[in-house]
Structures are given as C-alpha cells and as structure tokens.
Amino acid sequence: MTTTPPPPAREPLDLLGFSLLDRASGVLLAQAAGDALGVPYEFAQPPGPGQQDAVAVMRGGGLGPYAPGEWSDDTQMSVCVARVTAAHDVLSPVPDAFGATPLDEVAAAFEAWRTGGATDVGTQTAAVLRDAAARRGPAATRLREASAALHAATGRTAGNGALMRTGVIGLVALDDRDATARAARAVAALTHTDPLAAESCVLWSEAVRVAVTEQRLDVRAGLDLLDPDAAARWSAWIEDAELARPTADLRQNGFTVTALQAAWHAIATTSAPERSRFAGRDHLVAALQAAVATGGDTDTVAAIAGALLGARYGARALPDEWSVAVHGWPGIGRRVLTALARRTAQRGLVGSGALVLPDGDARPTQRCPVCGTLLRENPRYPQHVCGWCAADVTDEAGRAVVLSNASLTGGFTAHRPDGSPASPDVLAGRVWVAGVEHRAREARFGGIVVQPLDHA
Ligand SMILES: [Mg+2]
To answer: DSSP letter string over 86-125?
Structure first.
C-alpha cells in the first residue's frame, strides 16, 4: 500500500486570486455540467458508437423529466449543503437563535428539498428522509438516527448518494485536511451510515481540496485520513479503477465504491490530445464523456467526476455552451451556483467580516456587489462586478452576451454566444446582471469593467 505524506508547507493560499477562486467555482459548475450531461442516459442506453447519441448531449429528459441543461438531485443536494457552507462552519457546534447547528441546517435543507423541490430522490436518501420526518429532535440527529436504523435493518447503506454531493465539502477548509475529512464524514452520516460511504466522501473531498490548492489530480491524497485497513482496501480499488479494463463492473455504480471507481476511471484513463491548446478543457470534456458512457447512474458518476475535474481545471475550462446551459433547482444558474462555491472557499479561510489572510496579513479588499465574493481592493473601481458575474451579463431581454475589448479600434464590443451582434443597448454599454441594469466599458488598463449604475 502506498500512502501519500501530507504536503510540505506551501505558499499561503491566494484566496483573493482569480485562479484559486476559479477552481473553487469549477467544483460546483463542472459537477452540475456532468450531472446535466448524464441526466438523459440515467439507467438507460448510454451514448456510444452506433447509439442514438454518439457522445452525450445535454438534451434533458431522464428520470425528472428534466429540461436541457437542467441538473438533477446530485447538484440539488449539493446546493442544500453549499447554502450552509457559504455562510457557516458546517462543523460548528454553536446553535443559532432557533437551536439549530449548521449541520442541522444542512439536514433541514435536505428535508425541505425532498418535500419542496426534489425532482427525483435516490432510494436510500428517500427512505432516510421519510423515516427522519417521523422522528423528534434536532434535524441532524433525526437524519443520523434514521440512517442508522436503515443500516441496522438492511446492512446496505453504501449507496452513492453521499459521494455525489461531497465535492463542495472539499472547499470548506482549504488549508485544513483534517477538518475537511471531518466535514465529509459528518455530512455523509446524515443519510449514509455505512463506513464505505464516509470513506468515499473523505477521499473525494480531499482530492477536491488538493486539486483546488495544488492543481493536481490525486485520489490517493486522502488515504492516510482513513484507518489503515480501510486505506488498504481503497488503495486496491483505486488501482483496479486505473486499469484499462477494471475487474470491477463499473456499470454497477449505485454502490459508492464502484461510483468512485467509475468516476476515477473516467478521469485517469482519458487525457487531452497531445499539444492541445486547451488541455484542461479537453481533458475535462473527455473525462465527463467517458463518465456518462460508463452507463448505469450516469448523471451521478459524471457529477462526481465533474466536481474533481472542475477543482483541477476551473470554471473557465468548461465549454461555454455547457456553462451557459446548466441550471436547476432552486431556480439558479452558473452565476449563483459558482458564487456559493467561492463563498464557501473564502469563508473557510477568512473569518466572517475579517480581512486577515492565513499568512497574518491584513490585505485591503472589496466585495463583488452582486455575489459578495471577496476581491482585491481596486481603488479605481471600488464597486466593480467580479469576473464570474461579469461573464453572466445579459442584454435587456435577458439573453446572454459576451463582452470583449475591440481588438483594432480599442474600446468595448459585445456579441451573442452564437457570434451574432449584441443589441444596440448592449453596444452602448447597457448590460444586466441578475436582472439589474449595469454599465460596461473598457477598463483603464485593459479588460472590461462592469459596475452598478451609480458607480459607472
Ligand atoms: Mg441524479
């Protein structure tokens, strides 16, 4: 068995820098893209040569039925988690004014989602949430008890439903692998008592944390966070998953072990073409296609793979047509989804309201006025919208537009994603973010700046 020693001391994490925050954004965005890409093929004929679709297409349908680009329960449950982790330490034992800890809030969010938004719910999660509703006590306790009762009755609670939502846990404590592992176990245990579910979540969450902070893909990075016997078993399962033809039947991926193997197999056995100009994008696309082509629970395997691929390559690695299309419960798209990821990452490193970085430096900052992401101070544009919200601007009719510098004439230009010209309003600098009118113009030192009307 090989264990990976903890990484040596590193440069402080640049939690105000574009690239780290883009990789954090990529965790939820690429997960959502994998989810939406796999939805049409869930427990149906996967895409492949000679099939209706040679490669996966975000055509919707599936078990929902879903609209094209719509994500399913995997990302819906991740949003339940991320709404809490964006604002709170999920491990904090301190209750709010109503007596609920952050973990209770996650549990209560799962319950509210089941009755108020779920388009489909996995068998095991559904059974636990139904039983928990009949119990008394704090939400997290009720869910854990219901999950333990199911495990006692069936001995089979290692479904993939905890692993599918664990990506965002890799962002809760970017500088603390032990806290990351504790959070992974705590959130898994709400619905999945079997130790295999928790172990799969520890491994995947730590892999996400390492991908965001160290820009490498390493599913073994968290093996030493498991007990030695468990680590030996997982080490063998991972080795098997890296074979061109694993001995495990990867289509049986409702089981959390096989789901992790299938997701890792898709990542480890694909790569960008040699000399690719967009190696990150090409690997991400090839791996997500491979994940869906596995068959079985296609959206879940691709969602799991997507969380790790997005952590490594960032939100900007996604093809535009995917990142524009993805959307889902609770009525959000990439702008709000990725803001939850960025705020989760920053919350773990910056105390709420405090501006002191892990290196002890107090660095001047400002916040994106739309999504609240913490940014480097920019005295010239103190209210500028962050790059991720600026990438989501629309015209007056709510249609996506892409802003860029005019290469020859200087200044500012805009077009629709299909290349057609933007509306006269947009070309005059009138753009909308989250439905609110803003002003866009060429920034003084290049690039485009988008600002609220009263600061433009
Ligand atoms: Mg699903």
So the answer is: TTS-TT-----TTS--HHHHHHHHHHHHHHHT-S---HHH
Compute the distance from residue 76 Cα to the ligand 1 centre, in Å: 9
CA of 182 to the centre of ligand 1 (A): 25
Task: Identify the domain containing residue 371 by its residue range.
Answer: 352-455
Please answer whether residues 90 and 102 qualify as being in contact, where contact means their C-beta atoms are separated by less than 8 angstroms: yes
63 CA to centre of ligand 1 in angstroms: 8
Q: How far apart are the CA of 120 and the centre of ligand 1, in A?
A: 7
Q: How far is the CA of 69 from the centre of ligand 1 (A)?
A: 13
* Distance between Cα 39 and ligand 1 center (Å): 7
**Residue 334 C-alpha to ligand 1 middle, in angstroms?**
18
Q: Compute the distance from residue 226 Cα to the ligand 1 centre, in Å.
A: 27
244 CA → ligand 1 middle, Å: 26
Number of domains in the chain: 2
Q: How many CB atoms lie within 10 A of CB 350?
A: 18
Which residues, by Cβ under 5 Å, contact ligand 1, an ion? 72-74, 299
Indicate whether 7 belongs to any domain.
no
In a domain, 8, yes or no: no
Question: The pTM is what?
Answer: 0.94
Instruction: Kindly state whether residues 326 and 392 are assigned to the same domain.
Output: no
Are 74 and 171 found together in one domain? yes
pLDDT tens string 351-410: 544 445 555 666 788 999 999 999 988 999 999 999 999 999 999 999 999 998 877 666
- For the segment 171-230, what is each residue's pLDDT rounded down to a tens digit? 999 989 999 999 999 999 999 999 999 999 999 999 999 999 999 999 999 999 999 999
Q: Please tell me the distance from the alpha carbon of residue 189 to that of residue 421, in angstroms, as a whole number.
A: 51
Distance from the CA of 179 to the center of ligand 1, in angstroms?
A: 27
In a domain, residue 4? The reply is no
For residue 169, which amino acid is it?
I
Sign, CA torsion 421/424/430/436:
negative
Neighbours of 137 (CB within 10 A): 12
Q: Which segments in the chain show pLDDT lower than 50?
A: 1, 352-355
